[in-house]
Design a protein that fits this description.
Layout: H1 2-17, H2 26-43, H3 54-57, H4 72-84, H5 92-99, H6 103-111, H7 114-121, H8 135-148, H9 154-157, H10 160-163, H11 168-174, H12 187-196, H13 199-216, E1 223-233, E2 241-245, E3 248-252, E4 259-262, E5 272-285, E6 291-300, H14 309-318, E7 326-328, H15 338-345
Parallel strand pairs: 1-7
Antiparallel strand pairs: 1-5, 2-3, 4-5, 5-6
């Protein structure tokens, strides 16, 4: 626990003191990490117990349930309230279908209600008056890039090449007007938008999508849930700095949040992976065999799967999902059964 705590302290200091970390050169990063790591270890007290929240040690503190999460039932009430407050129903789908020819984009456009998105992504003091760009426009722009242009940089994406007057499909999907030449979304606006989104806002967006998912009727009554993980390798191959303390190594990589860990035996692949592990809770229709992911947690690859089982279930329950029957491999089981007992009591 002490070694995880040291790494956590170093990570926090690097993020706080060097917000422009990604712009620094490799040599400079090595100097900074070595200095910070040596200072933290020199002042660290190994004699006492580690008094820190478990989710912080697991590096998922921004992904656990927090105040403000809307349950599925509350989301349904919000959608009904917004629909009833509509003075006049406008058939925006007819306008969209005229310009949006991509079936995937058209489906998403029909699914999203911009008024709901604006409510979910608004902040304290937010006012729609005199605004040209709304949260829904920025959210739709992020979706468009992720779905159709993932390989394009943000700086290049926010140009006439992708949002010029002739790019009517892109402009209509993101909510930009067709009759105002030159009106664009700048890449700095998208950057600020992404960084400003809280974990609660992200989860509420997920609840909104799950609300539509539940209404679709895809999942029947033969429900169980499954938990599993997958490795997400990082481009970092070698650590910036490695420090051996009391027989254990602390490694800090160029990607501050990632770490190295063992992977499951896979033919032709190394037994170790440097990066992350994505832990997911999925809903399964036992009759059809169809499964769909509900919630996920992203954590460094060096942490054992069993740590994340209760957090996944608690997150699903905070979103208003009843999780009773769960299937998982042995990696998610603890030795004494206390994890499962805690979940039953909760």
């Amino acid at each position: 626990m002490h070694f995880r705590n040291i790494r956590l302290i170093v990570r926090k200091q690097l993020k706080k003191q060097y917000p422009n970390w990604s712009r620094l050169g490799c040599k400079k990063k090595k100097e900074i990490v070595r200095k910070v790591l040596d200072e933290v270890v020199a002042d660290y007290d190994f004699s006492g117990d580690v008094e820190i929240k478990r989710e912080e040690l697991l590096s998922i503190e921004r992904q656990v349930p927090a105040r403000g999460i809307i349950s599925l039932e509350e989301m349904g009430q919000l959608v009904d309230k917004v629909n009833k407050s509509r003075l006049k129903k406008i058939d925006a789908y007819r306008r969209s279908s005229k310009y949006i020819k991509d079936e995937e984009l058209l489906f998403i456009d029909k699914l999203l209600d911009d008024r709901i998105i604006n409510r979910l992504l608004s902040y304290d003091g937010y006012s729609p008056a005199m605004r040209d760009i709304f949260p829904c426009n920025l959210f739709r722009t992020e979706l468009l890039k992720a779905i159709k242009y993932p390989e394009v940089s943000y700086r290049k994406f926010c140009t006439e090449e992708y949002f010029g007057q002739e790019k009517k499909q892109n402009r209509v999907f993101t909510g930009l007007p067709l009759n105002k030449k030159g009106k664009m979304i700048d890449h700095t606006q998208l950057s600020k938008f992404r960084n400003a989104l809280s974990s609660v806002q992200r989860i509420n967006l997920l609840v909104y999508i799950l609300y539509h998912f539940n209404k679709s009727g895809i999942i029947g009554n033969n429900i169980l849930h499954g938990v599993d993980s997958t490795e997400l390798a990082s481009d970092c191959k070698l650590p910036l700095v490695t420090l051996n303390i009391r027989g254990k190594k602390i490694r800090i990589y160029n990607d501050i949040d990632c770490d190295g860990g063992k992977r499951r035996n896979k033919p032709g692949k190394s037994p170790y992976v440097i990066g992350y592990r994505l832990h997911s809770l999925a809903v399964i229709d036992a009759k059809t065999g169809h499964s769909f992911p509900l919630v996920s947690l992203l954590a460094p690859a060096n942490l054992h799967d069993s740590h994340f089982f209760p957090f996944l279930v608690n997150l699903a329950q905070a979103m208003g999902k009843d999780v009773w029957l769960i299937t998982a491999d042995e990696a998610y089981h603890d030795k004494d059964g206390s994890l499962h007992e805690d979940l039953v009591r909760s």
